[in-house]
């Protein structure tokens, strides 16, 4: 019986949803989404190119920034194809196995991004509280280990959650409420006991995101304590300014994430547009805004962007 349920699930077709009630405007609605994806991809690729090609940026802070750009694209890119297939009326269908892969990528990179933000907080802590030991603590080997640990922790944590979906029968509606697959959306359609997935998913969010946010909070408590001990006002402002970009990026990830979790758990009967709007903000806003924030607030990144746009003019001013 379990084998039969598994084969039925694996061969199931699900149907994605665009913007309910606005189907005739889907082609027009796709234009701002195109612009957002284009800005996000170009911005993050620009950050990666600048960090890779500029030897002055071969430092821990910028390696972590490159990791953030990779996780931003890893979180948003899996949704792009299915979203435009729906908005351009190509097809609403998605096979179960493709849906699971999409879920795995979205949730894995979402957890990984949280871990990368924790690593960036640790980077700021070492830079401000232990500046003389910065290069000896954050070695390239340690940075690689941190990146791999963040990715593997998130990936392995998702496997039990998604593996159980193969054994769920979906005997009711196969219509998903988003234009891409999310775990909390799919288990709603299962006609089986989903208590393990609900509890495990909740524990996963509390443990992974909870530990990361606690680590970020503790890091900034130490950073603030260290900054307050700096004698000059100019020195304090300079130290705070090095953390400003990271604080903005943390808020951009965690505020929509908390909002989406609250909507899914406590506003289940609210308008579907609210759920869709919050999900798109969570997946699209960080990849779009993060490169802009670091380009504006970080002098080295800003110079790299200007050098890409106006290479001759910037080279002559630097000489």
From TrEMBL:
SUPFAM superfamilies: Family A G protein-coupled receptor-like. Putative odorant or sperm cell receptor. One of its GO terms (cellular component) is plasma membrane. Residues 43-294 form the G-protein coupled receptors family 1 profile domain. Belongs to the G-protein coupled receptor 1 family. GO terms for biological process: cellular response to lipid. Gene3D superfamilies: Rhodopsin 7-helix transmembrane proteins. Its main location: membrane. GO terms for molecular function: G protein-coupled receptor activity; olfactory receptor activity. It comes from the Eukaryota. This is Olfactory receptor. InterPro entries: GPCR_Rhodpsn, GPCR_Rhodpsn_7TM, Olfact_rcpt, OR51/52/56-like. It is found in: Cell membrane; Membrane. Keywords: Cell membrane, G-protein coupled receptor, Membrane, Olfaction, Receptor, Sensory transduction, Transducer, Transmembrane, Transmembrane helix. It is a multi-pass membrane protein. The chain crosses the membrane at residues 28-51, 63-88, 94-122, 142-163, 198-223, 244-267, 273-293. The keyword Acetylation does not apply. It comes from Nyctereutes procyonoides (Raccoon dog).
């Amino acid at each position: 019986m379990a084998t039969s349920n598994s084969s039925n699930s694996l061969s199931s077709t699900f149907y994605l949803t665009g913007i309910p009630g606005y189907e005739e405007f889907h082609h027009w609605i796709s234009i701002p989404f195109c612009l957002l994806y284009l800005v996000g991809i170009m911005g993050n690729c620009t950050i990666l190119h600048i960090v890779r090609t500029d030897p002055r940026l071969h430092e821990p802070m910028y390696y972590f920034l490159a990791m953030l750009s990779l996780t931003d694209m890893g979180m948003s890119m899996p949704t792009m194809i299915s979203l435009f297939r729906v908005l351009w009326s190509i097809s609403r269908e998605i096979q179960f196995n493709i849906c699971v892969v999409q879920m795995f990528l979205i949730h894995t990179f979402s957890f990984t991004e949280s871990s990368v933000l924790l690593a960036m907080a640790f980077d700021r802590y070492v830079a401000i509280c232990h500046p003389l030991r910065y290069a000896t603590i954050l070695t390239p080997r340690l940075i690689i280990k941190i990146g791999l640990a963040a990715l593997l922790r998130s990936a392995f944590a998702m496997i039990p959650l998604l593996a159980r979906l193969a054994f769920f029968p979906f005997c009711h509606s196969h219509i998903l409420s988003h234009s891409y697959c999310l775990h909390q959306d799919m288990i709603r359609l299962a006609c089986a006991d989903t208590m393990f997935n609900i509890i495990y998913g909740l524990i996963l969010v509390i443990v992974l995101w909870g530990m990361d946010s606690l680590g970020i909070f503790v890091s900034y408590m130490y950073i603030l304590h260290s900054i307050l001990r700096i004698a000059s006002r100019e020195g304090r402002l300079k130290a705070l300014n090095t953390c400003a970009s990271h604080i903005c990026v943390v808020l951009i990830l965690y505020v929509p994430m908390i909002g989406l979790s609250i909507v899914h758990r406590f506003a289940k009967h609210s308008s579907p547009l609210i759920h869709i709007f919050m999900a798109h903000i969570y997946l699209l806003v960080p990849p779009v805004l993060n490169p802009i924030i670091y380009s504006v607030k970080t002098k080295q990144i800003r110079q790299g962007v200007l050098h890409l746009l106006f290479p001759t003019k910037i080279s002559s001013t630097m000489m």
